[in-house]
Amino acid sequence: MLDDQFGFRPSSSTTCALTSLLHHVTVMLERCFYVRCLLIDFNKAFDLVSHPILLSKLNELDLPDHAINWIISYLASLTQVVKCNGSISLAASINTSIVQRSGIGPVLYAIMESDLHTISLMYMLIKYADDTNLLVPLTSVLLRNSVMSNYGLTRIEWLSIF
Fold this sequence. Notes:
By secondary structure, this protein is an alpha+beta fold. It has helices at residues 14-31, 51-60, 65-76, 105-112, 141-159; strands at residues 34-41, 79-80, 83-84, 87-88, 92-93, 124-128, 131-138. It is built from five helices and seven strands, in the order αβααββββαββα.
């Protein structure tokens, strides 16, 4: 599940992600004329995680019921307040967002984006936390336009879950 994710893992780092990126670009350039690299930084990615979608993805994993129930309890307990001109609002439940700096938040985000895959086995995704790099090897300009158009549609469909 986390084969292409270099963030949130104790044995991984930005150096590992960059090394993988350079390796795959080099291998692709040995076979192709050039490589397109699309760098995506999901702005406010942790703030846009939908709890119902995340829970449906968790249910697809082979996790014990008590672990899923614990995560549901954790997500259900998230609240927010607003302070304006010295006044504090009542606490309101949050059904979108996970805490980035919590112990479980990064793992939940990685699960949320684990189904983001390329549309071709020739392409490569390299993820580090909420940053994603798409490598697309190309041999002609005509193919380039077709590939990037197809990728754009797929990306928009995946992003619509946020």
